[in-house]
Amino acid sequence: MSDNLPKNNIFKVIGASSLGTLIEWYDFYIFGSLAVIIGHQLFPEDAGASALINTLAIFAAGFIVRPFGALVFGRLGDLIGRKYTFLLTLVLMGGSTFFIGLIPSYKSIGYAAPILVLILRLIQGLALGGEYGGAATYVAEHAPKNKRGFFTSWIQTTATLGLFLSLGIIVITKNILGAETFGDWGWRIPFLLSIVLVVVSIYIRMKMHESPLFSKLKAEGNISKNPLKESFNNKANFKMVLLALFGATMGQGVIWYTGQFYAQSFLENTCKLDFNDSRYILLWGIAFATPFFVVFGAWSDKVGRKWIMLSGMLLGILFYRPIYQIFLDDTDYTKIEQADILSATPAPVTAVLMQNSTDSLRTVSTQVRLKNGASFNSIHVDTVSATKGTLLGKEIIKDKVLPTPVFWKFVGLIFFQILLVTMVYGPIAAFLVELFPTKIRYTSMSLPYHIGNGVFGGLVPFIATLIASFSGATPLSGLWYPIGVAALSLVIGTIYLSNKRDEKIND
């Protein structure tokens, strides 16, 4: 192991690896963060809720192909080296993101729009499937063994920081352009900006040297001839792949995507929070919680990886439903009393003729401000019949702005969820690296990581939203998916995982 590597060198390695990984996660997350707006662009105007579900399905497709990317690029990484492989993944990822920003809308090219975006999302997923394993392996193979959890945890921060960066740029762009312009074409700017970040990262990565352990292996002529066969045909190694998946990464994946992606989707689509409010809450929660990736990574060097990760899963199982119930209760504005209202400002009444009918839809929108500082839009949609007059319609309450105390309560609840993310995610890179030998490490660790995160974790927003839409379901029904997966992983991990730390990885 590289115990004598100068400290300034290891931090250069971490910086170069982390910057590229940060940008790749940024590229991946802006799609999920803008799912609602993108859905309006990719599908017909009358698609309704199905537009969001279809867009989340396209988003999920990028996660589903990540294991295939892990196999393709993991094999390349074990054959030609870590450096050039995750340089290639960066180019593919950045290029796909840039081109998503250029795809015309449904109005211009019809269903070719979602099909083209789906193809680019699949390329993104393949590239990300090769990125993480390369970056984590590269850093771990430079790090001294007694600080492997600490040093690899810096790579772990990039996933959350990528989300933070994507949310920040989205909010700034929307505030500069205004909501209408942003929804029309301004949403493309975060996608197009990524190309600048990618060029900078490519320049930095080109100056990096190959991992010392891989270089040593190559000089000795011990590089794997067939990484896929050696990873999965070897019974002992394949057993470790399965254990890593079902005892660790599967549970880690659902905790990760529930605490960040599903939380944002729930606040925006179920609780109907204002666009900026939902993102500011997440931004503050991420900012407060991100340092704990390094805290738990370093702690795992002292006490082992297992129980830190499993504790994060257990806390998610116990507290998800109470947390999301609080989100629902504190955003229920249907029982507002007249005495609570400070002002109610109606907008001009609009009427739209219904297709193939003489009836029309009349919309009355009122901006309501409450004495506690909260506000929302109350929208009454009535059907006006040419023969029967005005028929009873429905009220929609959306764009809710929280009172300050409730806003910070929500920040605290998001912080707690992301704290659980740091517990399961901070130590996992070191945990996975230590399971597998150098010659097949890139391939072996990438597959369980990306099945756990890409399939089980990445499908959380889609499956949870879909479950909650079933007849008879409640808004909290979708949580049973991540809770169930985390519980299964907790049981398997408790029984079968060993509490490793400081394992030799130069075999």
UniProtKB/TrEMBL annotation:
The chain crosses the membrane at residues 21-43, 49-72, 84-103, 109-129, 150-173, 185-204, 240-259, 279-300, 307-327, 410-433, 454-473, 479-497. Keywords: Cell membrane, Membrane, Sugar transport, Transmembrane, Transmembrane helix, Transport. Residues 13-501 form the Major facilitator superfamily (MFS) profile domain. PROSITE patterns: MFS, SUGAR_TRANSPORT_2. Pfam families: Sugar_tr. It is a multi-pass membrane protein. The keyword Cell membrane applies. SUPFAM superfamilies: MFS general substrate transporter. GO terms for cellular component: plasma membrane. It comes from the Bacteria. One of its GO terms (molecular function) is transmembrane transporter activity. It is found in: Cell membrane. This is Sugar transporter.
